Amino acid sequence: MLTIIRSLLFNAAFYISIIIQMIVLTPVYFLMPRRQAWIVPKNWARSNLWLQKKIAGTDYVIEGLENIPEGAYICAPKHQSFWDVFAFLPKLDDPVMILKRELMWIPLFGWYVAKMRMIPVDRGSRAVALRSITLGARKAVAAGRQILIYPEGTRRPPGAPPQYKHGITHLYADLGLPVVPIAHNAGLYWPRRKFRRYPGTIRCRVLPPIEPGLDKETFLKRLIEVTEAACDELLIAAAKDKNPPPMPPTAIQRLKELGVELPSA
Question: Residue 225 sits in which domain range?
Answer without folding.
Answer: 60-257
